[in-house]
Task: structure prediction
Amino acid sequence: MSVTLWTWIFVVLTFGTYITIAWRSRVRDTKGFYVAGQGVPTVANGAAVAADWMSAASFLSMAGIIAFAGYDGSVYLMGWTGGYVLLALLLAPYLRKFGKYTVPDFVGDRYSDTARLVAVVAAIFVSFTYVVGQMRGVGVVFSRFLETTTTIGILVGMAIVLFYAVLGGMKGITWTQVAQYSVLIVAYLIPAFAIAQQLTGMPIPHVSFGRVMTELDAMQRELGFDEYSSPFTNNSQLNVFLITASLMIGTAGLPHVIVRFYTTRSVRAARWSAFWALFFIALLYTTAPAVGVFAKYNLLETVAEQPRAEMPAWFDGWEETGLLAHDDLNDDGIIQYTPDEATNELTIDNDIMVLATPEVAGLPAPVIGLVVAGGLAAALSTASGLLLVISSSVAHDFYYRRLRPEATEKQRLLVGRIAMAGAVVIAGYFGANPPGFVAEVVALAFGLAAASFFPTIVLGIFWKRANAQGAVAGMAAGLTLTAAYMVGVLYLDMPELFGISPQGIGAIGAVINFVVTVAVTKATPPPPAHLQQLVDSVRYPSGVEVDTEEARR
Amino acid sequence: MSEADKRAYWRRNLRLMVTLLSVWFVVSYVFGILLVETLNRVVINDFPLGFWFAQQGSIVVFVVLIGIYAWRMDRLDEEFGVAEDREQLGGAR
Result:
């Protein structure tokens, strides 16, 4: 059977599973819709967090980026996992104790309604930036493997997400994500283990890729590239440091990840959820560096200095999508791959590496179909989590909390569903007309999250004195300066200050947020006593549930 | 919970947090980035040590850190009599 047929089989099977799960977990109340009735078991919640958060960028792009960046790709590995330590220790248990629906809920109740509004804007902004990357991932997968156009691929993906997110809200999303995690992790590990066995005779990629890397280092030297394992070849030490920090702080500040810790049964369950989440994520993240090395090694081995005419079928397949190109500059029919732009004849898009590797390694067709299903699971699970944040920001934080506090449960649920449908359409449009690489766009969203939420929430928990004026000024300053720097450098030809890249600016934005919040707070009166009591109550696990509605009056 | 107990509980929580975050900083930023070139001179099982910390070692340590945190906090909760009912977790662990 052909690769395309196998791919269809896996895609139909997995999509069918997601839809069945969604139908069985449909909800009728807002608590079910936003926080799954706060009844998700710990391990399941961990798997859902892992799927929610491991996006098309983690599954499709990351190993590819690492394959080309070598050591410097570590920023993604450490940055995206290290943030969970911050999340688990500084945020998750306290937000669970607080026990509401959204991140702006906490910001609004802890500080003020103005702060809530800034948080709503930031949540929507961050989530949209992020969801675009997922849609591009869906498009890449469909256009290569299902022989449709990117646009049709995106439409199919959006229709599926719309179905299960609108129907089941957080509850439907959570259980679908548990299934999606299973699909994506199996799809990621099987080819990695198979290739490790093939290349080294030792099937555990985490242990055996060191030997392949030694050969890869030699190969890259020969072709005139820097060694794969040598540090700071693409990025300065300063940037590696700052990008790692931005991604860590950003991970801890991502609204669609934070809300996940509202869905657990207790504070204790929130802590263990964070553990299971990172455990499940680490299964993929410790495999990714091996996949990067194997992918690069196989690619160089197959392609570099070889005649174009002898390339296998996958080469033609990817050339048709435009994501791989051979431009025979010296007309010798051989593919020269060099670090010098004047003589290099091969261009490869980072995003194709994970998808192409099983084919390059000559793995059987079902494995390739499975990897495609895994890529789609990664993209769609994250997209659904993000759409829920956008929907709850509009329907809960804006419509209910600001516009119409007297709205009935039914009306709020309806507005939530309409907002979600609207968000799907907008996300689909941007997915079809994407502004850049999956991981690059996503990295920017992390920077924006780092500069806005994280400092505000952490200060809100650990510093009783922090007040509304400080939080509003801090978030506004952090977000504005970070966004301005990104736009300036990326689109307006502004020179980089001190050699800081746009991906690394989020860490600086977070520091600015911290400093401004503290300075403005010090210059203004302390928050009222009932807010200080609120802070007190979130610090201890059990006892009386905090009634913040009461506290606000 | 008395006022004194509350303060003690919070202080112990903070101390645990700071300890774990120090380890977090050392394995990632210090071993993986600041000292990577020095550590790379040590090669174990074909892996330069600094590179290994940056791409795998730090991640493994992160998982362990969160595990220690959740475990120690469970014990702290029990000690101060604020542990949440295990029944409530529905055997979730």
In short: The radius of gyration of chain B is 18 Å. Helices of chain B lie at 3-34, 36-39, 49-79.
